[in-house]
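Subject: Interface between my chains keeps coming out wrong

I've been trying for a while to get a sensible model of this assembly. When I model each chain on its own everything looks fine, but I need the whole thing in one frame so I can look at the contacts. Pasting all components below, labels as-is. Any help appreciated, I'm running out of ideas.
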Amino acid sequence: MSQFTWKDLIQLNSDSKSYLSPLSCMAHVDVNAFFAQAEQIRCGYTRDDPIVCVQWNSIIAVSYAARKYGISRLDTIGSAMEKSGNKLIPIHTAVFRRGEDYWQYHDGCGSWNSDKSKQIPANLYKVSLDPYRRESRKIFRIFRKHSDRVEKASVDEVFLDLGKLCFQRLLTEDIISKSTENCESLGILREIFQQGEYNIDSTLPTVPEELKLLNFVGDVYNPENKPLIEDWDDVIFAIGSQLVGEMRDDIEDSLGFTTSAGIARTKYVAKLGSNFKKPDAQTVILNKYVQDFLDGESFDITSFWTFGGKIGNEICTLLKTPETGSIKFIRENWPDGPQGLHNYLNKRILELSNTNEIQTLDSSKTEALSQKLYDISRGKFLLPLNEKPIVKSMMSNKNMRKDSCCNIIHAISWIEVFSGELTARIKELEQEYSKLIVPKTVVLLATTLKKKVYRKTGHFIHNHSELTPKDFIQIGTKLMQDIDNENYGAKNSFFYPLLNLSITISNFEIFDTNKTIVDMFGNHAKILTKTTNNTKEVEGGKQEELNLFCCKFCNINFETNKEFQEHKDFHVALKLSDAMNGISEDSKNLTIGERRLLLNKKRKNFDKTPPKTNKKSKGKRGSTPGILSFFSK
DNA sequence: TACTCACAG
DNA sequence: GGCTGTGAGTA
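Reply #2:
Try treating it as a single job with all components included. I did that and got this:
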């Protein structure tokens, strides 16, 4: 007799409820040493070549072929090369050069190269992870081809809710496997289902003998060689393992990546499963052996997702010793529900209240926490697939070396890099989803030795049909000018060199592309004329006229050429004033573009005082600067 | 809303 | 350790 009901089975077919069914089947798939594999494939190496992916002096991914030298992610490339007797094949990530808005690979270059001309100095470059995002999307697309129940958990991981696919394969598709083509009792099950001749609360028939021969793809966790298929959940897992096997094969055949997968009732256990055997493997954790798995492999609380840091350690402390953070300990000491555990945690928090051992946890969190621990320790913490929105935020960031950002010129050059990166990333997403994606918020964050300075747009509107790096450069530059004026220019206080500079865009508005551009931006154009004092309300053709004297950098319209020229002078001056004023050796450190600007400046004899601040040019033309067309108040 | 912390890969 | 992202908490 089965322990499951028809309701449990049918629930699998529901996108929103499948995870709640005792027959639910989740998978976690992880690309092995993703960055290293991506480079291996890109550069045409094989899996046996010991590739490591390098960023500056650090290794950020180690291929499985390179692990045999004992290389780990924390090694520097220098020490790793030594360990391996120079056998490693290091490949540096793609990089942007300061002042340039595109990334490039410089294969063969990197700090391990003794040839000085083949270095990639971290003060002048910024790492680009775009190539990996691109591969990640290709992989994700393959999962999506097989299933619409996919959660992208990170750049190299997905969760799958296999309930619906398993259900369909079991009950409505012809193919389960060759061994069951003639399975009469399965036919009967299907017939009952199709005729609707069942009571939803009645138990399912016993699993037919023929079905017990169903093959699993990958390894089933079963150290004591107990029977595999006995009830319907085992059948579902066998089908699930086949589905995941097919997806992983597809990924390997079409893209070349090997992956590891875990299949289990819950996301948490599936994730432990994918980590269990690597690379190129998959592990099924059957419900009836999940406790053996959790106990036998001596998992403790800190092995579980979101418990890997302080919280997990504090739980171990509350439970007295690290060993007693073990899953078995929790399950066996609180067998009758989470209430006892809840009381115990609260008691321990009180006991430890005058020590500083417990900092993150407090009694307001223990109720939910004890329920979660109670469930986790039984492999029954049910979490639905989280279908994430396209994007929530996007950051382009650079941690500076001491000479990477010593003045506003440098800062603006980095902003150009950020702008190129963000625009390219948005464009790729737009193409992938056939949407227009418009960020409403742009944040510039500068970190100095002493403080963080933060500027944010109100309501970002771009009036182009297409987003260009220029849009972000305009805004980023404006924000940077504000920050510079307030913290350096006006007060003449300590500000540079910056330790960090970043642009984060967020608050995305997403439009379907089947609308016309006018449909989408018609309203925005109105806002533009409304909120901008110095732009007259004009229609179509007349707008063109105004654009004759339009600063492309700020998108300010000027009424006369003279004003326009003055404004342009102001830009150059602003960009250059700091470099000329202070630190003369800066010029050594400038990129070609920056140096050209400097030369131009000398040639044109720009030394006479230009309009000094933004405010001045504001005042001249009225109360509102034209750049406001990009902001609301 | 602005900012910090925690966590993850 | 550097880079990118999410979510919770706090004021």
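Reply #3:
Confirming on my end. Chain A has a mean pLDDT of 79.
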